[in-house]
Amino acid sequence: RAFARRAVRRFMPGEDLGAALDAATPLAATGIRTVVTALGERVTNRAEAEAVRDHYVRVLDEVRRRGLPTQPSVKLTHLGLDVDRGLCVASLRALAAYAESVGSFVWVDIEESHYVDATLDVFRQARAASDRVGLCLQAYLRRTPDDLESLLALGASMRLVKGAYREPPSVAFPDKRDVDAAYERLAERMLQAAADGTGGLPVFGTHDLALVERIRLRAGSLRLPPQGWEVHMLYGIRTAEQHALARSGVSVRTLISYGTHWFPWYVRRLAERPANVWFVVRSLVS
Ligand code: FDA
Predict the structure, then answer these.
(1) Which of 23, 179, 201, 220 lies at a CB distance of 3.0 to 4.6 Å from 157, suitable for a disulfide?
(2) Shortest CA distance to 41 belongs to which of 275, 283, 285, 261?
(3) Ligand 1 pocket, 236 CB below 6 A?
């Protein structure tokens, strides 16, 4: 429906790669680098999974052609995790190798908790072949401290987020305060590892500005250089603050989503902040 499309526009500049990269261009001019992701998940056959892999190869090509500081981020169920794990490993390895050849990097998103073991397995196999691949971790999961330790041992770059899916309390902290506290502990561990030279690049995917400020102070006290850690935020959320952070010397990347399969992703954005539902209602009225 047109009103839903209008509401979604706030978080997504358009449905195709061109629109995402057009939005990345002025951001790059202001010192904000970007990550792009094609919306979609849980493909059900090899042909679709291979088409997604080929699409991301085109993303890397187009990013290079435009000379943008932009990295792709992929969901493994979009790359065929449910269809054939071997294919998914091969595709992620191929993308990481291609990213390496064009001087880029590939991020792996993390999905519902029942995919975490498989995601880590695929990630480890890809990471064994190339260091141009990093993984997202969710602070709300009770298992994440252990996962973080095993990934730090590999020297992997990680993007820490709070977690966006509805999970049972046995698996994830139901109370937001516990999630926030877990995030801080994990962030501290990632910063420490970076300061010790044992971890990869620590990335903090959050719009929680108070948390970002504490991370910035901690990074400073550990004498991490500004390029030694990053903050990633979503397109359309806290835009002014993203610019202010970048101006103040923080390495900021904006994650821009695009594609026609935006419905489940958009519902997650609404769930994170129920006030966003008003944008839908206002778009309906206007
Ligand atoms: P929190 O929810 O505490 O919000 C802090 C403040 O930010 C809020 O008070 C509000 O003002 C603002 N805010 C947050 N969300 C908003 C929204 N949707 N609209 C408007 N304002 C909002 N999750 C996942 O499970 N797997 C993944 O792979 C990823 N990947 C990912 C990458 C990046 C770059 C980001 C920024 C986020 C993700 N996420 C994710 C989503 C993440 O798990 C989480 O749901 C959201 O980032 C919201 O949590 P915050 O950390 O922003 O904090």
Answers:
(1) 201
(2) 261
(3) no
